[in-house]
Design a protein that fits this description.
Layout lengths: L3 H13 L6 E3 L5 E2 L6 E4 L2 H9 L3 H10 L2 E4 L2 H9 L9 H7 L3 H14 L22 H12 L3 H8 L19 H15 L7 E5 L5 H10 L2 E6 L2 H13 L6 E5 L10 E7 L10 H11 E14 L12 H7 L8 H11 L2 E7 L1 H17 L1 H8 L1 H19 L3 E9 L18
Parallel strand pairs: 1-3, 5-6, 5-8, 6-7, 8-9
Antiparallel strand pairs: 1-2, 3-4, 9-11, 10-11
Length: about 425
Amino acid sequence: MADAALRLRTLFAQVLGVPLPVRIRAWDGSEAGPPDAPALVVRNRRAVRRLLFKPGELGLARAWVAGDVDIDGDLYTALDLISGLVWERGDDARTLFESLRDPEVRSAVRGLVALAGPPLPPAPPPEEIRRVRGHLHTRHSDKRAISHHYDVGNGFYEIVLGPSMVYSCAYWPAPEPDGTLEHAQRDKLDLVCRKLGLTAGRRLLDVGCGWGSMAIHAAREYGVSVVGITLSQEQAAYARKRVADEGLTDRVEIRVQDYRDVTDGPYDAISSIGMAEHVGADRYLEYAEDLLKLLRPGGRLLNHQIARRPQTDESAYHLDEFIDAYVFPDGELAPLGTTVTMLERAGFEVRDVESIREHYAHTLRRWVTNLEAQWQRAVRIAGPGRARVWLLYMAASALAFEHNRIGVNQVLAVRTPESGTSGLPLRARTWN
């Protein structure tokens, strides 16, 4: 008799203390749960073993990446329904240990063990980064982390990002984001240029230049000279070709270089778009001080960065397990207030902060649509595991932005000289 789904649903409800809000479809063809809800498809017993050996987010992520579980139905709805059971509950070992004191929970766990088959822990999917002991955010560890994320094939990113090749939050028109992704990304790049007050003949340093989009836009539309730096060899090669194709080699230089090794200042402006999340809390003041030194007096920094919500006990913050293992190794998010404080401690005058949180939710949903529309090609380029990583990461992130669990902000700061003349307009957001 096919009853694995009912058994799984019953046992999981006993362990979690609440019924599952999604339907379960098991490897034996059985189904159980709300008929109108998306289905969590458990393809094999190995999926159950993954959850037993690593309960919570990482175990579920491993099962997803390996293809041991899937979603039948709307992915966003499914993630929204299960987020409270996984991402918001966390993986607190003490909570799990305390729950095992309940005889009913212990009995349910034994039932899951019996259903899972031979008690051998499955190996993590190959897409999971192998951790290297040592200090975080050294030049070597940062380069390794960046390579893990970005050196997966430029063709894959062409699918996800579209022609703009911009891997950060776009800037959508109001009241609804009814324009194209390419137009919204162009508007974001132009917004950054205007906030930085770029004019012909000035020098711009683009930290974390990606595939060269910001550097090309600034040089082509504003006549500035640009140095773009990245730690990704694949990004640099792609960006250099784009620069050559645009006929901008006399104004744009792309380097494979750590921001800590840039010594050819002063620059009139610095853009750091979606890069500071890689810096790390222990290095952030150093990052801010290094950028300050590279600016001339009166020079501007535009820091575009994802922010998390502050915690009552900041020492309890830990990296998201799935993101750390599969997407952004060693990435750390800081509250907006912490970022502003560090910039001010370094010597910057913070002049404007603009939250564009909802814009990132729209952007991520467009990226998911792009990936789903060319799924087979993406799988051929990057492999099924990597494609599944990005699909889960982007869909879950879209929901996180929509529900205000994380945000994204553009912080405009100035190296204001001793005279106090900032060079900014009296009225905010005219950006001249």
